[in-house]
Design goal:
The chain is mostly helical and 168 residues long. The protein folds into 2 domains: 59 residues; 90 residues, no CATH class. It has 8 helices and 2 strands. It is extended, with a radius of gyration of 29 Å. The protein starts with a helix and ends with a helix. The structure holds zinc ion (ZN).
């Protein structure tokens, strides 16, 4: 009795024999495509500066065209972009939490990362940034001191000035 796998193998062999020319042709195409890729990469490495300069020049000359192409691409890839942005943001968020003492509210100890955020300990050093950009801002500033991980509930109290009393 032949197993399914063996039967498949036999069938594939028969097919290859019957379609020899086609197999040959496909192999040739595959080889050409892959060697082209490799030679393209080598060429790019050797001409990197020139290519980058040309790309830059093209972008400057075709500013409007580029804008149009980019916005069309963004429109077509909206979902993918949003997903990537969210993933990158979540990753950075976790890094920031780690640096400022772990994913845990500094006041009540809440560990629900979806409730946690970063808050400055001293309101005077409040950064000038959009609320959504705090993680990016911290990264750009090299993670300065004076920030803490806090949950939304505690931050609300903190913003009303009573949290200092809680902590004392
Ligand atoms: Zn809390």
């Amino acid at each position: 009795m032949t197993t399914n796998k063996e039967a498949k193998k036999k069938y594939a062999k028969r097919w290859r024999e019957a379609n020899k020319e086609r197999v040959k042709e496909n192999n040739k195409i595959w080889r050409e495509k892959n060697s082209r890729k490799e030679s393209q990469r080598i060429w790019y490495e050797a001409n990197k500066e020139r290519v980058n300069k040309n790309t830059k020049r093209w972008r400057e000359v075709n500013k409007d065209k580029r804008k149009e192409i980019c916005s069309k691409w963004r429109e077509a890839n909206k979902e993918r972009i949003n997903k990537n942005v969210k993933e990158r943001r979540d990753k950075l968020k976790l890094i920031v939490f780690d640096i400022y003492g772990g994913a845990k509210c500094n006041v009540c100890g809440c560990e629900d990362i979806y409730k946690l955020c970063v808050s400055c300990v001293n309101k005077e050093i409040l950064p000038k940034h959009g609320r959504n950009d705090i993680y990016k801002w911290l990264k750009h500033q090299g993670y300065p001191k004076g920030f803490q991980i806090i949950c939304f509930d505690c931050r609300r109290i903190y913003n009303h000035g009573t949290i200092l009393a809680c902590r004392a």
